[in-house]
Amino acid sequence: MKTKQDRDEYIIVIGCGRLGSHLARLLSKARKSVVVIDKDEHAFHRLSDEYSGFTIEADAVEIDTLLRAKIDKADVVVTTTNDDNTNLMIAQIAKTIYKVPKVIARLFEPSRQPVYEELGIDTLCPTILSAEALRNTIIGEETGDLE
Amino acid sequence: MKTKQDRDEYIIVIGCGRLGSHLARLLSKARKSVVVIDKDEHAFHRLSDEYSGFTIEADAVEIDTLLRAKIDKADVVVTTTNDDNTNLMIAQIAKTIYKVPKVIARLFEPSRQPVYEELGIDTLCPTILSAEALRNTIIGEETGDLE
């Protein structure tokens, strides 16, 4: 039996905006199996030549789209659209219906984080991450853990 | 003579959106002297009670506003508005005219980064930071430095 390290992890990225496309590229460079879903075909132009994964032009809010992306086989689903509700809805489907082991949702409104936590969905809030990085740059690492 | 560590660092944050307000709060909690500038008075509602710094309701693109904020005394200026051009313009004024030691600009379009570098302006790109954090979460730290 293969260990987790040996297994070819399969990752679905929802949304091919700045964040989704950049993430897809990084994962692709790390030789992961990646599928990016976006309902706007023009969004895929953001993917550079370095991206060697698949793309699906469809609305990821539709179950059919998620099935086409083989969500039942996914190890990780990351929702990166610009809308918290869309991200939460798809993350919830991935977690609750398809039992995807790791689900991460981009989150604009940090105050909603507890809802996600209760559903077993990890969150990434670019605002908090960026503010903390800036604070550490300004204050310096020796006092960066003051919070 | 005081060392850099002893000195009360004076920081100007331009823009009181999600990022600016969160950063201001973190710096304020770390007992730094902070001024936040935004042209929209409603933006200051984002600052929580934990924020003990000053606010200036004015357009930071105007030199008068920057002078009111005592930019000539600032140790750090961070531009966090939603517009790359506004951030670059103010960062450039801070760096070139007022010789602010540390200037950091939020950057939406990573491809423009070299321009900032040439001007001695540090940049923070939330998209890149977030994509890298997601990659490290997904791939794990042992392979997180693959890029």
UniProtKB/TrEMBL annotation, chains A, B:
Signal peptide: none annotated. Residues 8-125 form the RCK N-terminal domain. Keywords: Ion transport, Potassium, Potassium transport, Transport. One of its GO terms (cellular component) is plasma membrane. Gene3D superfamilies: NAD(P)-binding Rossmann-like Domain. SUPFAM superfamilies: NAD(P)-binding Rossmann-fold domains. One of its GO terms (molecular function) is potassium ion transmembrane transporter activity. This is Trk system potassium uptake protein TrkA. It comes from Anaerosolibacter carboniphilus.
